[in-house]
Amino acid sequence: MIARGFLGPLVFLGLIFGGALSTLGAPALQNVYGRPGLDLNGPWHVIVDPYETGYYDYRRQAFDASAKPAGGYFLDRHAADKSELVEYNFDESPTLQVPGDWNSQAERLFYYEGTVWYRRRFDYRPAAPGRRLFLYFGAANYQADVYLNGEKLGRHIGGFTPFEFEVTGRVKETGNFLVVRVDNQRHLDAVPTVNTDWWNYGGLTRDVRLVETPGTFVRDYRVQLKQGSPDRIEASVQLDGAEPRQHVVVTIEGAGVAAEADTDDSGAAHFEIAAPHLERWSPETPRLYAVTLATSADRIRDRIGFRTIEVRGSDILLNGRPIFLRGISLHEENPLEGRRAHSLADARLLLGWARELHANFVRLAHYPHSEHMARVADELGLLLWEEVPVYWTIQWENPATLQNAQAQLTDLIVRDRNRASVIVWSVANETPVSEARTRFLKTLVATARSLDPARLVAAAMQVRGDPARPSLRIVDDPFGEACDLLSFNEYIGWYDGLPAKLPEITWSFGYGKPVVVSEFGADALQGFHADALTRFSEEFQVDVYRRTLAMLEKIPQWRGTTPWILCDFRSPRRVLPKVQDGWNRKGLISSDGRKKEAFFVLKEFYERRAAAEK
User: Fold this and answer.
1) What whole-number distance in Å separates Cα of residue 458 and Cα of residue 249?
2) Claim: this prediction has a pTM higher than 0.90
3) What is the pLDDT of the chain when averaged over all its residues?
């Protein structure tokens, strides 16, 4: 089987790997937290398997190639008697917490890249006749093979997006066992590829749930303001099931808005709703409405905000008014515990720090973060840049790599396109310019615009110099014509000379679009103080921030920035003893939660910008 997803107007992307049908990211059903089911989080027994022994019983296969493998870990077998040879035992194996990464939970797995088998036993009351059951995973890094009661459900590829398998009729009242093989090895043809600058956390890193639905249910929906007509709401609904023609009612509580329509033979309905009195969602007033979508058999509720976002010339307009994006970048990592962030509490911690910085914008780098991040941002009034891990030098001319990237982008957009906080889909970061790369990225832009034309599309593009004019920096990446924003990373003062050169830098742009600087910064070890020319001191980082902000203010079309980065984060590339020790130290907050001096420099700058805009 394949990982199940809404296939209406979306493209299902599958490949054959080793004879097993696999998926690179069919979009999962929406709003799983709004449906009944069973939480499968908690301790799972695990077997670490660097030699891939769990796939087969190599001795038995040597004598009888047709025999069903007795030793496959997915069978969760126990010896029938004292003479039978079974060389594994989940019951006696250690446990790991799900959701969570294995690197931070067991010292012996800190740097481990390879296969770990997870097993969870569970009971579940029988679903009522006509009801359906889905096994949902928030994410598993990077490849997951899923088995229920000894039978393979399928495979998912991609470490940061949700997936599911339908298990209607396969779950027993008692004695079920779920086995998942998770492999986080890096590959040249993967997305991301082998070379990154963050920790390759392996495991079942987000929630695992059984989700129950009616026989025909609302799989996908979109409820947003209509482009060009902000006093009207445009809604679409996609049903999944044997009875696709149904009557659908959409209501928005507190707004006096209701509409109804009949779905067609494919289960789809599209309609408009007059909504002249909706309060607009914004960072100052993050108003969320209770939205209900109901059929005769299904009823699902969501909390949705309504706002517009567009570009006009060099301005970014939120609800028709210019906005400056006071941003910060962050990784999905809890620095206080040195692990992958995954919970609502983690999201509130990270985004709460961003709000304390007086930010109104957050770049979720360099891969899709959990659904909790977007939902908490909706509540807090933080605008979001969401990104897929098309990072550095991936295989631009490999069709399977492009399909992989498209699938991950599709997963992300379908999951989060009802979140008012999300205003930018980013399709890449720091990718070297070439014709093949530009074609690849333009294909991703077309995918994003076809799925969600109401948001901006961007990427962190390349900056080049001019040998004849050393102080000039040029942004004319040919991919810029396909984007709504001119975004780029610059590290003048850290990787490019010393901070003293910043006042001399001038900029040239090949496009008259808003400039949003997606990264700048410098490393600093919290608590290390010296003069402003001493690398890794807080004073050096402060000097870079002050001079960079002054330089950027001279750019007429500058409309925002997301400095790198909110918190120190783990990276195996950063090895300087007693300073980095496996951490990228560009954070404004240290790996033990202490704010560096540059945090307050940026906060003061943002407060001043916000006051000037009132």
Assistant:
1) 35
2) yes
3) 92
